[in-house]
Amino acid sequence: MARSKYKFEDSVFITCPFDSEYRHLLQAIVFAIHTSGFVARSALESMDSGQNRLQKIIRIIGESRLEIHDISRVEVKKDEVPRFNMPFECGLLLGCLSYGDSEQKKKKCWC
């Protein structure tokens, strides 16, 4: 596997809604991350449709020491099935903290 062009120490993985309603908050989060000297990372950074989305997310989480998980929009609406991708991605982080190597256990998260 190719090494990331971003340093583990500087990478911040963001899990949040990517829709138009949330866009202003996402822009503020990315601005704050970059202004603080870090690099914002998300599943949106690579649009390679040939790449398995789950493997891409696992790779980026593995390459990021810091994580922001906004799971506030996981909601149940009448006649709709909620999307659980954001809590699932938070669970991947918890797996890193519990079962990862010493580098992965250095991760910090804001939920």
Supply database-style keywords.
alpha/beta; Rossmann fold; 14% strand
The low-confidence runs, each spanning 5 or more residues with pLDDT under 50, are none
The class by helix and strand makeup works out as alpha/beta
Q: How much of the residues is beta strand, in percent? A: 5-15%
Helicity level, as a percent range? 25-40%
Shape: globular
Q: Give helix and strand order, one letter per element, not per position.
A: EHEHEHE
Within the CATH hierarchy, at the fold level, what is the topology? Answer: Rossmann fold
CATH class: Alpha Beta
CATH architecture: 3-Layer(aba) Sandwich
Strands, count: 4
Tally of alpha and pi helices: 3
Mean pLDDT metric: 87
Overview of the molecule:
This protein is α/β, with parallel strands linked by helices. It has one domain (8-110): Rossmann fold. Helices cover 34% and strands 14% of the residues. The protein contains three helices and four strands, in the order βαβαβαβ. The chain has helices spanning 23-35, 53-62, 85-99; strands at residues 11-15, 39-41, 66-69, 108-110. A four-stranded parallel beta sheet has the order 2-1-3-4. Helix 1 (23-35) links the parallel strand 1 (11-15) and strand 2. Helix 2 (53-62) packs across helix 3.
